[in-house]
Amino acid sequence: MRVLHILSQRPSLTGSGITLDAVVRHGAAAGWEQRVVVGVPSTAPPPDVGGLSSDRIHPLLFGSDRLPFPVPGMSDVMPYPSSVFSSMSAHEIELYRKGWHRHLGPIIEDFGPDVIHSHHVWIASSLLKDIAPEIPVVNHCHATGLRQMELVPSLAGEVHLGCGRNDAFVVLHRRHAVDLARALDVPGERIHVVGAGYRNDLFHTQGRDPKPEPALLYIGKYSAAKGLPWLLDAFERLAVRHPDLRLHIAGDGSGMEAERLRERMGAMGPQVALHGQVAQTDLAALMRRSTVCVLPSFYEGLPLVLVEALACGCRLVATDLPGVVEELAPRIGAALELVELPAMSGVDTPVPAELPAFVDRLTTALSRALDAPPLGDPTETIPEALDAFTWGAVFDRIEQVWRDVIDRASGIEPQGR
């Protein structure tokens, strides 16, 4: 069986890119013949996705003659230089649309996939039924497409119509499924909750210091939408009472907002360590050196980094996002401190007057997590959470959706699935 994977941005550097890599690896182990299409800068080295040979990876090059702008990102702040959809001209959007159409057509015709697995409910995914109407499409929604529909309403109509034709959707959590059904006007039976996964071969407690020095770990972009400025405020308060406390920052960002945050963190001295974009093996090692992993974000799907950090023995502090509250909190219990979100004026924009109280709540939650005893081995104490979120379990759920849509396209009604 053949599956074509599509990701319209750079692989491996964001949650959707890590998902792509994991699904490809498990697909290979399950015997699927696979090809991958990704968007990359023309100056970047050839991408590595899931260990596939380079002849099975088909990059669409940006910063080229045909696409003379950086790869657009599904978030407005990416960990690398990128275009922002809401700032692109109508001409650039048309070049983007035509670029994907021109690139995908010959690949689909040559490979002849049994199913297409396309990440993000956005422009590239909306074109697939125009290019190959007879091939079933599974659309992987990571929540950022729904966010872009709000940020760029001029493009929401074509995404609504185009992606609404796709055969099935996989989402991260139940609230996400409700939001997607409403945004695309698709029936709930076409939407499947598959969750997010982590690599249990990398993220574990082996080698962890049973009494590490007190340290907080933030993983993500240099972005206000991720709550980073207010985490820095909370850390400055905590550092008064805990002078030996350290804050590790794993991630990066581009643009003026990221530069301002980089300057602020650089001025905070040795207590704040900037690690940049780190490989998965190095991230796991950093988690094993940290006491608490904190995610103060105002908008997320299902934050995979929390599961990875938990598997490495970190306590967790996170805002009460739907994916965290519905999918993680019931399985994790006391290992997680929830922080109430401030009132929001937009999809990821807090009301300014609410922010001082938010910093208070965040500081209190971090203090409680730092004062709590070490977790020990979470694979023994919280097995349900970790077992449900291994990539093997997530892939099994995705593969079942692939098989179901292939059966239906062949006129076979799936039995008992």
Provide mean pLDDT, rounded. 94
Major sheet: order of its strands?
Answer: 3-2-1-4-5-6-7
Radius of gyration: 21 Å
- Proportion of residues in helical segments: 40-55%
Low-pLDDT residue intervals, each spanning 5 or more residues: none
Instruction: List how many beta strands DSSP finds.
Output: 13
Main β sheet profile:
7 strands, parallel
Give the overall silhouette: globular
Structural class: alpha/beta
What topology emerges from the helices and strands here?
Elements: E1 2-7, H1 15-29, E2 33-41, E3 57-62, H2 90-111, E4 115-119, H3 123-126, H4 128-131, E5 137-140, H5 144-151, H6 153-163, E6 168-171, H7 174-184, E7 191-193, E8 215-219, H8 228-241, E9 246-250, H9 256-266, E10 272-276, H10 280-288, E11 292-295, H11 304-311, E12 315-319, H12 322-332, E13 336-339, H13 355-371, H14 378-381, H15 383-388, H16 391-409
Parallel strand pairs: 1-2, 1-4, 2-3, 4-5, 5-6, 6-7, 8-9, 8-11, 9-10, 11-12, 12-13
Helix pairs in contact: 1-16, 5-6, 8-13
Q: Quick recap of the structure?
A:
The protein is α/β, with parallel strands linked by helices.
Account of the 3D structure:
- There is one protein chain.
- The chain is α/β, with parallel strands linked by helices.
- The chain is built from 16 helices and 13 strands.
- The strands form two sheets. A seven-stranded parallel β-sheet has the order 3-2-1-4-5-6-7, sandwiched between helices.
- α1 packs across α16 (391-409), α5 (144-151) packs across α6 and α8 packs across α13 (355-371).
- The longest helix is centred in the first third of the chain and has 22 residues, at 90-111.
- The chain starts with a strand and ends in an 8-residue tail after the last helix.
